Amino acid sequence: MARNTVIPTGIANEFGASEIIVTKTDLQGKITYANDVFCRLSELSTQDVLGQPHNLIRHPDMPRSIFKLLWERIQAGKEIFAFVLNMAMSGNHYWVLAHVTPTIVDGQIVGYHSNRRRPTEGEISAIQNVYTQLLAEEKRHSSPRDGMDAATKLLEEMLADAGQSYDEFFWAIRNSSRV
Ligand SMILES: Cc1cc2nc3c(=O)[nH]c(=O)nc-3n(C[C@H](O)[C@H](O)[C@H](O)COP(=O)(O)O)c2cc1C
Question: Would you write out the chain's pLDDT as a tens digit for each of its 179 residues?
């Protein structure tokens, strides 16, 4: 699937507050399980998604620096909560509040698991403000690698200025934007 030819439409694919979007991956991030809600929102069949890399639904407005943090955390055996903007096959989008965890068997990481729920409008607007700044920093650099490193530094500076760890930053948005 040539994802770079899909243009974001600006239209949201809606889902209910009680729905949970689930995928599991192998160690490389290739999808090994996807529930019906994931398939519906991504506009894909189970057959389409199994074995595909998870960046299949990557939205171009998502900062690379957030995925870098996600992978660092889960590869270290830790969980992460993150707001993620995803893109369906049509270019429609959907925001999620993701909880990504490693699956550990006999002390070894054997894969990863993500559960996602619908964030509130308040959470979306708070995180968009931060992601817009990270994305702008990434785009200021001609090399994606340099852009990602610079945006990672910017995120660290933003957190240091606020006196927060990443987790405190996440929960501050979560707890202040419930409506
Ligand atoms: C369990 C799991 C769930 C993931 N879920 C998403 C997701 O919903 N959307 C997404 O864009 N990337 C997701 N990723 C991250 C992708 O693997 C990838 O790092 C990201 O899309 C950036 O792709 P890129 O490095 O090709 O730019 C997930 C990774 C794992 C391990």
Answer: 556 689 999 999 999 999 999 999 999 999 999 999 999 999 999 999 999 999 999 999 999 999 999 999 999 999 999 999 999 999 999 999 999 999 999 999 999 999 999 999 999 999 999 999 999 999 999 999 999 999 999 999 999 999 999 999 999 999 886 55
Q: Which CATH architecture has domain 17-176?
A: 2-Layer Sandwich (3.30)
73 in contact with ligand 1, CB cutoff 6 A: no
Find residue 1's DSSP bridge partners: none
Environment class of 42 (CB within 10 Å of its CB; exposed 0-12, middle 13-18, buried 19+)? buried
Regarding the beta carbon of 169 and ligand 1, being less than 6 Å apart is answered: no
Residue closest by Cα to atom 31 of ligand 1: 29
